[in-house]
Amino acid sequence: xxxxxxxxxxxxxxxxxxxxxxxxxxxxxxxxxxxxxxxxxxxxxxxxxxxxxxxxxxxxxxxxxxxxxxxxxxxxxxxxxxxxxxxxxxxxxxxxxxxxxxxxxxxxxxxx
Amino acid sequence: xxxxxxxxxxxxxxxxxxxxxxxxxxxxxxxxxxxxxxxxxxxxxxxxxxxxxxxxxxxxxxxxxxxxxxxxxxxxxxxxxxxxxxxxxxxxxxxxxxxxxxxxxxxxxxxx
Lengths: 112, 112
Description:
The complex is a heterodimer of chains A (112) and B (112). Chain A is 0% helix and 57% strand. Chain A contains no helices and 11 strands. Chain A has strands spanning 4-7, 10-13, 18-25, 31-37, 44-50, 53-57, 64-70, 73-79, 87-94, 102-103, 107-111. In chain A, the strands form 2 sheets. In chain A, strands 2, 4, 5, 6, 9, 10 and 11 form a 7-stranded mixed beta sheet that branches. In chain A, strands 1-3-8-7 form a 4-stranded antiparallel beta sheet, with no helix packed on it. In chain A, a hairpin with a 2-residue loop joins strand 5 (44-50) and strand 6 (53-57). The model of chain A has no long low-confidence stretch (mean pLDDT 92). Chain B has 112 residues and is an all-beta fold. Helix content of chain B is 0%, strand content 46%. In chain B, the strands form 2 sheets. In chain B, strands 1-9-8-3-4 form a 5-stranded mixed beta sheet, with no helix packed on it. A 4-stranded antiparallel beta sheet of chain B has the order 2-7-6-5, with no helix packed on it. In chain B, a hairpin with a 5-residue loop joins strand 6 (61-64) and strand 7. Chain B is globular, with a radius of gyration of 13 Å. Chain B starts with 8 loop residues before the first strand and ends with a strand. The model of chain B has no long low-confidence stretch (mean pLDDT 92). The chains are: A mainly beta (112), B mainly beta (112). At the A-B interface, strand 9 and strand 10 of A face strand 4 of B.
């Protein structure tokens, strides 16, 4: 247990669905991250939030919409996804962007 | 960020020390060496990090060469649960270069 939880752990959705991934950290950290890990590819950083403000968006398509309502929670809202968006989505947190990041278990997303 | 080079895969007998090498010849003076591992389909797990001195914690030891161009992660008594992909990452701590950039890592298999 790293103190970072993600729900759901598995999600199957159609291309017209709208769903949300949730991440919660119990470590008192101020920075949170979304990463994407596609099959046989390295982890890719998607978004960085520091003190609830988005500080980085790595050219992610608008069908992915992050939300950070407070320093403990991070959401990734999904709509009109494509099959190639199927991947493991990982959340991480750190005390500050420069500190060690701790990862959650991930959400395995399949888009049909 | 400096790039790292790791062997694609390694085997190690259970109970023996696993020594995982990493080359980072272009590392700069303010960049740290971080190690994470990822057990199949789980989130990456932080192991250890260091700047120039050798480091040890309950999971592993990190040996950094004097010129800092390479390092070795040592798992002193490998168990079957240590089978995972191990990532060596170089990152700075200044704003703008603090990203964790994951490569393809070393797939370590512990043999019974």
